[in-house]
Protein 1
Amino acid sequence: MDTTEDSLRKALAEKQSAVEGQGNAVRALKAAKVAKAEIDAAIGTLNALKLEKSAIEQQLQAAVSGNGPDSSVNREAFRQAVVNTLERRLFYIPSFKIYRGVAGLYDYGPPGCAVKSNVLAFWRQHFVLEESMLEVDCPCVTPEVVLKASGHVDKFTDLMVKDEKTGTCYRADHLLKDFCNEKLQKDLSITAEKAAELKHVLAVLDDLPTEELGAKIKEYGIVAPDTKNPLSDPYPFNLMFQTSIGPSGLLPGYMRPETAQGIFVNFKDLYYYNGNKLPFAAAQIGQAFTNEISPRQGLLRVREFTLAEIEHFVDPEDKSHPKYPEVADLEFLMFPRDKQMSGQSAKRIRLGEAVSKGIVNNETLGYFIGRVYLFLTCLGIDKERLRFRQHLANEMAHYAADCWDAEIECSYGWIECVGIADRSAYDLRAHSEKSGVPLVAHEKFSEPIEMEKLVIAPVKRELGLAFKGNQKMVVEALEAMNEKEAMEMKASLETKGEVEFYVCTLEKNVCIKKNMVTISKEKKKEYQRVFTPSVIEPSFGIGRIIYCLFEHSFYMRPSKAGDEQLNVFRFPPVVAPIKCTVFPLVQNQQYEEALQLANDMQGQMNWVPFAITVDSTSSVTIRERDSKDQIRVNVEEAASVVKSVTDGQRTWDDVWSKFPHHSSGSTED
Amino acid sequence: MDTTEDSLRKALAEKQSAVEGQGNAVRALKAAKVAKAEIDAAIGTLNALKLEKSAIEQQLQAAVSGNGPDSSVNREAFRQAVVNTLERRLFYIPSFKIYRGVAGLYDYGPPGCAVKSNVLAFWRQHFVLEESMLEVDCPCVTPEVVLKASGHVDKFTDLMVKDEKTGTCYRADHLLKDFCNEKLQKDLSITAEKAAELKHVLAVLDDLPTEELGAKIKEYGIVAPDTKNPLSDPYPFNLMFQTSIGPSGLLPGYMRPETAQGIFVNFKDLYYYNGNKLPFAAAQIGQAFTNEISPRQGLLRVREFTLAEIEHFVDPEDKSHPKYPEVADLEFLMFPRDKQMSGQSAKRIRLGEAVSKGIVNNETLGYFIGRVYLFLTCLGIDKERLRFRQHLANEMAHYAADCWDAEIECSYGWIECVGIADRSAYDLRAHSEKSGVPLVAHEKFSEPIEMEKLVIAPVKRELGLAFKGNQKMVVEALEAMNEKEAMEMKASLETKGEVEFYVCTLEKNVCIKKNMVTISKEKKKEYQRVFTPSVIEPSFGIGRIIYCLFEHSFYMRPSKAGDEQLNVFRFPPVVAPIKCTVFPLVQNQQYEEALQLANDMQGQMNWVPFAITVDSTSSVTIRERDSKDQIRVNVEEAASVVKSVTDGQRTWDDVWSKFPHHSSGSTED
């Protein structure tokens, strides 16, 4: 707990009793009808005490709500300026705005869409292409069985309470959090002990079991914020958008809550595609969906968003990474578990040191932390407002080996934008079990070992005669049976001679006869080690990264005339929605209109990193936005010079040192 | 109707009666116990007739099922070869395959994903960037009100029938289509008249009203294909995936069936962003969803797909396009309405001629047809298997001014891949009405114009006294009268003092008295024209284009050794998933393994357009896949030469003429 705040609360409580004591004294003197001078003196003392109390109240108010450049008031004002600029310039549009919108859904307007497309192109370059990852593109519509296996059907929930009279829904933890924050910031009369309790509740909020959360809501007398009606007990609400696949209503499905599952279910094919070799990484960019109970935090917590996820599959017995040395010397803010537990803050650590000391679990995890750092800082995220925070033991899934979040500081506080987790073999095992298809890797033994194995041998001729064009689907379904299903079929075929068999891809039952398939268990010599790979998963919330990038790129500067404030996004060329503008200054009738337009747009365009001014017929000037430096370049070269810088092939410094400089006050700002 | 087939059916019917007649004759001779020689002679004639009948049957069978290179059998074999290659090389993967898949859902595997990403990047370059379109990115989750306004909630349906015993669902038109096709192809005994009737049903299938479709199913005795159970009457099934937004269950939503609506609802902001000027175009790339009843046609008819849509907003009184001259001289296969109606085939027409003759409704529509042609052919779609087919009157929505589909011929026939429609003002009007937000454009007059305007002024006090709670509905109904209705009411009120008036929202007549409303015509100065823009919509089914591209790029060639067939995709560099491979031939231990790998992969890699062979330390050769031509280039230049060609900045011919040629048999094939 903050010591200033703590001692101020104590001082306030003491002063409050002093005021009360002196008030009683004054009343007693009045009742005793003592001399007026004596009463006046006592009243003077009382007033002095009240003034002192008021001064402490002011200090405490400042301490809890903040008053520095980082205070919540200033943060909100800054955010408002950013968000207003973003919405005014159509970076974002609340979706379906003419129908009064839907909470948690936003469109990217033209410049926002260009930024997003640039961020994704850079992500693809930095991860998929440079690391030769296997990119896939799977549907959003996902059948229930997949998300049952992954655990989402049972566990992807938030606790919800309902207004008992109107039925309006609220997130239980949000109400409790709001109550605690409001009490701490606005009720100065609470004791230091009470304040400590509320702060403790805020700290453990995410881990509170349903019953305890409900008990706290009751204990604090929290009611529905809009109606003051009583609230129901909390209960879990599944956050997936549910739907139904096909017309029968019998195949439930969901809009995927993450893109990762599409990769896991394809592991077998991808491993084969990679020449049956580990390690390899697969990647996917796509939409994901979370049916938030009541979305808040504007652009950060939305119901539909773009994820970019990597699943790096690795032998659990060897998590080294060949390119790890390339990132080992990076040094940046890390926030390991022990630092969090002991109340310290994040500190600059060399990545190589964090890995060698075992703070980061293994080299591959470390490698990706380094690559994520490079990705985010190249995009324009401020190094000083980026930290890698390790999950505490209670935040991590039981199966995870280690997990780090890239958190970016913005006006909402430190926001998780990338999660980098070593999820061990959990996901592949879950899908192996549910589907009956082994999702495993192989390592050849130096000499063979004997083992028992299930063999399913469909008789294609008979199946072809019976099912014609559907033969392939039936064969695949038979081969996909797990051991239990296969042995049950074998038993039925032996006793009854035939069996009903559901083929998903045909969406119907077919009749399998004894002559159509042979099922047996055979002793086989094993020539290899078979194991489930571990997966290291860097998962990027693209929308959150983009929003933080907007905040980090934003600054205000006075216009040239000094009469208004210009809101500028200082985007690096790689993400700038427009890379370069061209201002023709040559005296020529046909350019006049263009020039006027260019002037009109200057206010709009101050986020463009380069401007070409055509002031002669043979050469042009190129101006860089932030330094305002200008160079002179031949007309034919201009486009390729700008392109080389915006593509990241060379830097402005590089260009600056190679071309003649140009100085002219006339076209600046 | 095909005349050969027609005459063969008649010949077959005649021969059949001849066989029957001769059979009767033989039986009669036997019954009359005539001499054996006479009977044998008659049997000889019978057998000869049977042989002749059999020959006609064979000819008819060939005529109906085809036997040329374009026959359905050969088409299916070709498709199987393409699809097998695509699936084996992981261009596609049936989604959730380990769970036996879901009909109509496919993943793009690594090379497919790269092709898709290249196609989308090229689309963005060709349309969004070159035309300065305003790209937006809206959510898939869409509230019901938006799709109610667009008409999808009420009309986005297919007719479905159910197996009356098992409940299995089928598309009614598919069953009827299958029945007709099967009858035509396999039942050689049907008369020419019956065949003509079945062909007519196939032709009008898409337009059959529910009742007629049901009647045909009954008339032909069509039953459930799997169980032979009777079928229900057809009824409409809405093809949108439904879901619920938020936890209350009170806000129904759908996964969008197209991306266009996201643009329409943003018209007002986009128009403002464009400086309140027309024309301008907005564009969107994104997922769309159709909950198909029973998806067929493999990769062409799926339940989730990527659309790229453009909405070009234009003044309905001026549909010229400044860049139209750039495409007017293009000449390609067009299939206007009148050619289809008169049974002719598509023919090469110069686009400028089609527009000037009014075959294509307007310049802007023509411009986009030309741009779509350039887009598809640059991607690698075969010019000879691409046609632009105009919608027939009965295919088009009532509001559409004109509509053309870019159809690509593949093994499934001519497939609609891009629709280019002039949808007039329909969509903006629909959302204006539903939302109450005017989605209109303005044109300032050079000087104000005096106009006569209808003014309907309900007297709310009187209406309130008369109709209490229904006042608002009556007011709205009065204000909604058109000029004719209002002037009639004015006349009646002046003569009779009151009038009966039907209020739709109350579903009854009310009595309007003279003191309740003032109707007049006023002269007003108008300073601007206010109108709803027309929209020209090119809409691209990206997945279909990619699939057709795969078929058009596919060919088989013998391996160098001649011992096996190589399946090759001859992708143009712009879409090739891998642009270039590098084969190190320098004798150096560290390259040995790479060389082995390169050899192993050659079979896999024959869709890569360029190969660099490193055969010296100072220079390399670059080989082009199709011509097998090789050039020699300095090591430092190699990457930029390949990049310039794959980016489309220069052609191979261009490079071929600039660099020294290299000829060596040793590294070929």
Note: Residues 157-238 of chain B form a domain with the Herpes Virus-1 fold (CATH 3.30.40.230).
Protein 2
Amino acid sequence: MALVFERVVTEGLGDLSYLIGDDSAGTAAVIDPQADVDVYLQLARRHKVAITHILQTHVHEDFLSGANELAARVGNATLCSSAEDAAPYGYAHEALRDGDCLAFGSTVLTARHTPGHTPEHMAFLVAEEGREQAPYAVFTGGSLLINAAGRTDLLGPDRAQALTAAQYRTLHDFYLKLDDGVIIHPTHAHGSPCGAAIGDRLSSTIGYERRFNPHLQCRSEEQFRRFALDGLPPKPSYYPRLKETNTVGPAVRHGLPVAPPLPAEEFARRMEEGGAVVVDTRHMLAFGGGHVKGALNIGMAAQLPIWAGWMLDPAQPLLLVVESDGALDEVLRLFLRTGFTRFAGYLVGGMTAWDNAGHDVVATAQVTAAQVHDRPGDFTLVDVRAPHEWASGHLPGARHVYLPELPARAGELPRGKPVVVYCDSGYRASIGTSVLQRAGVAEVANMPGSMQAWKRAGYPLEGQPAG
Amino acid sequence: MALVFERVVTEGLGDLSYLIGDDSAGTAAVIDPQADVDVYLQLARRHKVAITHILQTHVHEDFLSGANELAARVGNATLCSSAEDAAPYGYAHEALRDGDCLAFGSTVLTARHTPGHTPEHMAFLVAEEGREQAPYAVFTGGSLLINAAGRTDLLGPDRAQALTAAQYRTLHDFYLKLDDGVIIHPTHAHGSPCGAAIGDRLSSTIGYERRFNPHLQCRSEEQFRRFALDGLPPKPSYYPRLKETNTVGPAVRHGLPVAPPLPAEEFARRMEEGGAVVVDTRHMLAFGGGHVKGALNIGMAAQLPIWAGWMLDPAQPLLLVVESDGALDEVLRLFLRTGFTRFAGYLVGGMTAWDNAGHDVVATAQVTAAQVHDRPGDFTLVDVRAPHEWASGHLPGARHVYLPELPARAGELPRGKPVVVYCDSGYRASIGTSVLQRAGVAEVANMPGSMQAWKRAGYPLEGQPAG
């Protein structure tokens, strides 16, 4: 009998999902699958196990659940969802109760109701057969995280107080009573907006978190409440949409969304028809060198799903420009992760075909940190980072407009000087420059390297907290 | 700053290797790389880090080290080897001393001399910058393992006593003084012959092992000595060869070994020339259906490297038959792992081409557990499993010849009845049947499913330990 254990890291979203089972029994469970489910099927086949159960720790808001898609693709797996304090689900499932056990060969999972991040939240203790009283690990979903705990404000201010109190009890009455040697396998990890300052380790232990996790240092519920609800990152605008979709149960697609191939002439015609938005997924420098007029630049990178979520309406069809036609599947996979499935098509042959067809391209200027530093006062500097990043220090004379607010607030920017948009690396800034170009701002430049390059050069910051 | 952490599982050999680093600093280390190093290069590229250091916990005996190959393929990485009680190395390296620290962004590794499995053995503590006194994990190499400890008898009986005493001190004076919440990342894992009864979890913690690891339950050095040196699996015959190769430093190949393509006529001609051995890497049932006369059947599976190691001489060129030509690279990768790099060629087009060229094939009968059970006394039953497997119970009337001894002992088998070879699954048994066919034994059959099928059917066992 041998354990099967695989951790799937979905970078950008900062989520982890898992395959756990036993290749002698030939069975396994997937925990918190992402929407692009091929990876779980491939892992199951490599390990020669049947995925018999699909478990969700909670109703996710930060990604499109792959549970229903995976159940359909497997064909005979049981989809399990928490029945403790749960809103009614819109899909067929087996109800999980606190204390329910599932065995996969010699590995035993026990569901534990651990509310706080959400009301219905379930953790899964992992034990060896015969040692059920001494679990060696726990899948913590969105409850106890690395250096953090799942945020409790996502269901709105009305419910935040009760959920925060529940999270405090979950941490103290459940997690802190486990042995120090129990390994923590969270779903939400570094980079996830489902918690503040989540650490970058992929797993931890009760002992290490007991000692260092700031959420576990709070000695009273009141202290915890203040700490837990303070300094949270902005709640992504797409969270309520995904919460609703995941509660109802996402449509089964049997694969990636479809983006029909559009030769340059057709792509141009489809643009003229209106109703679709052009998203150019190339690197910011390629976008800067030349792009289709009106395109939004959301680069093909791990964080694409988050920024598509913030900046785009999933009801509006997308027209895609990709770095190379071979990258299309990867781009579709990234969009799918936050529920984007409507594509009017992609530009066949990419920008080369567009150029050869004789269509116009628009450039975006790129300015370096040194150029901005050496010409103080020459630019209107726009910082599009999140409020807590802005509060940790920014470029002298910059103004702050968080990127998701930029489309509505483009008109506020003073005219007369070229606008330079920056963020931490240039990725979000390039989205911002494309937003401003679409809004008709004449002179706009991106700042590749952004704050990282600024700091590396040792240039001064403004607005840094004291101490 | 974000941690990069990847665990590479080399199934069959039961070894784990690791990439750990920081994608903000852009640097990483690889720990105990296997010989097929592409996976580390791919992981480093995916995470956008430079492999700056290649660390080895000890001089390995169970696999061909990939450290030198990886150093050459990276181009500018530093290869670090323990200088504590180490035999002289035959390759350029940086000497590691107990207490040496290496930082990769905010991740700090500290080398700790932990002799026992080998004299020079190093573990690597892992800590977050600023918390060096509270490591959160430790790469344990071949010292503290999951549910086990690295065996101490590999350098021969002369050194076993001193190494066992050293291992006892390593476990008690180093590991048991760490916090319960420290995560253990071993190199030798489930299935590795470098320890007995290694557990199938991929990581563990000091706390869980303190409680359940039988090696940590021994309360005196004397008790530990008896426990540690008892019940060890047979020491693979290829271990001394790999120890020597890895001490000198394996030749850098810049990729997989070469197996020239041989059309059927050339393959047959090369066979007639002599000096080469035909290894058929197909599944036992395909081999049974028809194979080249004289072929040894070592199936393309995770355990191929171990059985190639036991059954073949790396100085003798191999002639390969593969399931499909597309599987050649995977087969070469498996052979490389225990140091097989001499290939006379492979049969282009596989057995289909052989058939079409009009060459003879030989079949091997396959008998089921039910057939053996229903015809008691009709067969000479040969159990080719390891001694400790035989001792846990075997088929009634069977005789035991451990597979590696079968070539020399084929003549001992009584004539007159068909010989049925079995193991646990049929994989080793099929190697055994091919050995006997090569030795000229007339009637030989394999038993697919072997002990697993026998037990599943509820048939009686003989020689089971009492209780």
Note: The two ends of chain A are 56 Å apart (CA to CA).
Protein 3
Amino acid sequence: MTQQIQIDQARLMSELATLATFTNAEPVSEGTSVTRVVFSPDDLRARAWLKQLAIAEGFEVRDDAVGNLFIRWSGTEPNLPAVATGSHTDAIPHAGMYDGTVGVLGGLEAMRALKRTGLRPRRSIELVMFTSEEPTRFGIGCLGSRLISGTLDPKQADALSEANEPADTAHTLAQVRTAAGFTGDLASVKLAPNHYHAWLELHIEQGPLLERDGIPLGIVTSIAAPAGYRFTVSGLGGHAGALLMPDRKDALCAAAELILSIERHTLATRAIDTVATVGTCDVHPGAVNSVPSRVVLQLDIRDTDPTRRESVMQAVRRDIEELRQRRSVIITEQLINADAPAQSSPHIVELLEEVCAAHGISPKKMVSRAYHDSLFISRIAPIAMIFIPCRNGVSHRPDEYATPADTTLGVEVLASVLAKLASE
Amino acid sequence: MTQQIQIDQARLMSELATLATFTNAEPVSEGTSVTRVVFSPDDLRARAWLKQLAIAEGFEVRDDAVGNLFIRWSGTEPNLPAVATGSHTDAIPHAGMYDGTVGVLGGLEAMRALKRTGLRPRRSIELVMFTSEEPTRFGIGCLGSRLISGTLDPKQADALSEANEPADTAHTLAQVRTAAGFTGDLASVKLAPNHYHAWLELHIEQGPLLERDGIPLGIVTSIAAPAGYRFTVSGLGGHAGALLMPDRKDALCAAAELILSIERHTLATRAIDTVATVGTCDVHPGAVNSVPSRVVLQLDIRDTDPTRRESVMQAVRRDIEELRQRRSVIITEQLINADAPAQSSPHIVELLEEVCAAHGISPKKMVSRAYHDSLFISRIAPIAMIFIPCRNGVSHRPDEYATPADTTLGVEVLASVLAKLASE
């Protein structure tokens, strides 16, 4: 490398702001509200814009059948397994402008900054923008990285149905990706275990710890194990005036008990690493004067310890049995995903510590309670993650915020470690 | 009257079936699913079709500024206050094909049947199809009859906002009715207390009592007092993985407790006439991996005794106070409507009993726990209602059903009493 790595902070911040304009969300007073659901017009516009940025830089660009986007800077020995970085650009409804995007645009800037130093990397360096890290549209997160790592069956994936549409009008992933221009067999998305030499993802913490401790950078040593469930509560509908209370089997009242049961048993573990969230509650028919006949809840439950996570589910299932009998409702449980935790590569963690030391930073080693595409890439490659602080630990909200200085430092450390890994 | 009243059952059933085709609902296996929200394309098509039926019969047709439709058969003394009947044709999502429609198409057939006997009524007979009896779109039921009776302030009505749209994209009633072609000052909708001589509405029971007792016809002697509230629960949003359980102010968990509090205090009255329903539960941001920051619930609570209804609300408010403090959430209550019960006119009830006796029927005198446009028309005219049985007491569902025989009998009794009232 002929000169020092210089991150173009102004350009990176401007690109983050531009990416935030590809949104279906209305402006709000408390920050920048971003809604960018996978394969929506805004997502497709954001992809086209990102490709243009990469092409302008002379990088190679390719999409796979599920729409994962690969931006490659060829190394001097292009047949060696590449070093990779990346994240996602999709955003849940009314989210913020840093989640995922910092890892994608930061990864691009890291590659550009290395190029500006005059470096010719030995191994190729590849930036990946994963399809549908967020579960908003198809009810399951990390679609792209699950398929890359062979964690999700391609046929099952193509049959996934839009989660927030009625069963009879919902489209499948196969239909939606084809309409978006991503065709071909999903089985072709899977990459071999030796395809990447190493993987490193830059991401905002989405928690309060770095800010609380006044530390500008975190090194993720493990990623918590997430699980997703869908509960359907079926009762008896009817007119809100005429269906008498003793005759009711109100699906929403039963669902309310289920929501509180989940909260109660999660708190009962007294473990800080156990978190459970019912994030959606869809009521059918959903009219003010109609007794709810059916309610669908989606549960997200995570733990660093999968056994403890399962013990919470067992306690909830005992409550469901009791609820079923007492309220004469039907409650079905559908497992959407249940994943094992991931450990970071000690070697990449060591390189991160070296680079931090060279920058005079004492990084915080930490667990990621949020899960990321890195969780799945860990099945096929050595991984690690860099966290940067986010204000008040807030994420998935318009007021999500990371400072330009922290963002720039994260990109600089990312670039340095990518350079080291690419020289191996 | 020169000959006996003959109801054209085949035509009436065929018209009910045709009206059910103006729907935004998909077909379902368990019955005819009807969704016809006020001023939707299907509602407007249904109105145009109904007008054609009336015009073909030689009746006069007029709309008022909120879209109430008046179909008039002029009497020999057209300046006398008219006798009126009618109901509504709008339908909540995934409802059935009898609620409201039996009173509108049945009323039309009653007028046609009287005309076929050669009758020239002394007073005019008027059929009214009310706008938005269902609260689906604007969060408040009986919009048309509230305005006719002066129960709702015209300016307040025009400012009503679409209940199921985000605040920043919701349209007002003023905007929606104008776009639908109903213009002019809403104040002009109100009718004088002497405008109608009498009012009689035919409707399905929407409850199980007539079927249970094997009685083909009910005479409504009073209508229960309904109230509508909207609760907004505001907590703290965040990422489902990263926001730790002790730091949470989950709006959906708080809403779940509120739902159960409402149910508990309603059951605690031990009164069969107290019913309360939370029919909608809108979660923001509504993503599986996001902690709910805001939940909006709509409550419908009814009682024949408004004091008992208010005592339930007071008990719920005490729970809300406790919830606010324990969960650090904000809960706001908005009163949508709170109406007094209505009594039927003893004179019309007496005429109904006479006609039933002449038909060899022992009708059931009953309370309507569902409310109807008749509740509001009672503020400006003597009213009564005729109920016909509906299978299993089911309403607001695709499997809602009334037999052709019961429907025809209801129309026949309606026609007979309209003729008597028109001769007064």
Note: Residues 227-338 of chain B form a domain with the Alpha-Beta Plaits fold (CATH 3.30.70.360).
Protein 4
Amino acid sequence: MRVLGVDPGLTRCGVGVVDGGPGQKPTLVEVLVVRTPPEDDIAYRLLAVAERVEALLDQHRPDTVAIERVFSQSNVRTVMGTAQAAGVVALAAARRGIPVAWHTPSEVKAAVSGNGNADKAQVTAMVTRLLRLDAAPKPADAADALALAICHLWRSPMQSRLAAALSTSVLAARPARIGSVGR
Amino acid sequence: MRVLGVDPGLTRCGVGVVDGGPGQKPTLVEVLVVRTPPEDDIAYRLLAVAERVEALLDQHRPDTVAIERVFSQSNVRTVMGTAQAAGVVALAAARRGIPVAWHTPSEVKAAVSGNGNADKAQVTAMVTRLLRLDAAPKPADAADALALAICHLWRSPMQSRLAAALSTSVLAARPARIGSVGR
């Protein structure tokens, strides 16, 4: 199974591609950080991120795209840019029929280090060890994108079962809701 | 000049197309609300919004897309969906080379009603009057999208001069910054 993990952002958007699966050692395929100049127009920054991610999706054909679920913790302007970048990445995956999974920062930290409050240095160290890399991926956005991909490889068997159970219950419930959809 | 205004959202995304310009009465071209079911996957909801907006861009060929600038006021989940929807709309415009302008809710309210704190009913009433409509556009997202387009038509002469002045100063400043871009 191949996962493309994304630590979304406009100034720096980390993208990491990892192969693996339950019981397999994860292997690095590619990692890079897409950067766009803060002084550029937001729409063109989003276009630059989208075009680069689309090229990587077409090149590596991942089975799933795993994106960090953003919370409104830091300053509003940064969070909006991050959410917009996450949106265009999710759109690029949806256009290709590739499922998108969302993981919170604490889920990612817990998955790779066993500690949901791990700091950036611990996450980077664990990613370096798990992927058997000679040097730590830099900057932190690159390591975070790889951690997201690894997190998804390990959590996906559980998530797939959950999603299947949910979609069954949603499908079963939907006919009763159709009357209110047009409201 | 033709402006496509967008009140971004995943559950309801208002889109309004208006013709006009300085000294001209604004005229309604089209208004609609794109809806996506909350129980669907976010990536596919974004795809549904993107595809509908892209069809409208290709049909009406606006000179500018005006999008509401989102703030993190309400609940985090709603704001993230709104920012993601705004991102895919901005991306669709950028792909077509159509400039994107962002206006805050208070700028829009002030432009159409003269009061930056106007309520939804006042905005809807002014949009109905300004566009000489027989009935008020519904729901509020439709009226808000039209208000955004009208706001842009009236503010754009000033914004264009500002943007030109800014881009000149950014271009003048950029050579000095190149050394730090690759960091």
Note: The longest strand of chain B covers residues 27-35.
